[in-house]
Amino acid sequence: MRVSSRVLARMKAAAIATVALFIIFGLSSLFPMSGGEAEKLTEELQGLTKGNVELNIFSNNLAVSLLAYIPFAGPVIMGYAVFNTGRYIGWLSAQSGLHPIILVSASIIALYGVFEFLGYGVATAESITLSYYIIRSRRMLRGEVKTLIVCLAASTIFLLAGALIEGVLIRVIKTPTTII
Q: Running DSSP on this structure, what letter comes out for residue 33?
């Protein structure tokens, strides 16, 4: 199988993974964090808004994304990260009196959420593929290296775009709790 057809197949899988992550994100917002948990996370997020906001957001999201590439464990790690982010959004919703779907939708409409989740979806899809090849076809695993590099680059570009948009929004809104 050529690299281009592998990348196309991976992008289709990434789209499916992205939708699944959005569903986890949306549903988990219905189970808000406790006040103590959320306040601790808010403090951590405020730390990201000091200095170069875009770089801090990008490096944080890239670190999470790189963990998602780990075969077998990556999708679980990503699901957990997205689930907790959704719970945080649920807490923000409770504090603001807005329904969680409004804040979840806002992150999608603002585009940064789309780019971030696409980056995460690429990583998750590649992790699943690597896991499959480890179990079923070690011969195909060797050929996956080029596709992995392309996926890493695509994921990084998506995360960078998301961080740039989110950084601008944080500066405009001037509220660090908008970081998702």
A: P
Q: Residue 136: which domain range?
A: 3-28+37-178
CA distance linking residue 100 with residue 105, whole number of Å:
9
Domains identified in the chain, total number: 1
Contacts 24+ apart (CB under 8 A), 131-138: 131/71, 131/72, 131/74, 134/71, 134/72
76-85 pLDDT, tens digit per residue, is: 999 999 999 9
Among left, alpha and beta (phi > 0; psi -120 to 50; other), residue 31 is beta
Model pLDDT, residue 180? 53
pLDDT (0 to 100) of residue 143? 83
The full DSSP string for 119-156 is: HHHHHHHHHHHHHHHHHH-HHHHHHHHHHHHHHHHHHH
CB atoms inside a 10 Å sphere around CB 27: 14
* pLDDT higher than 90, residue 133: yes
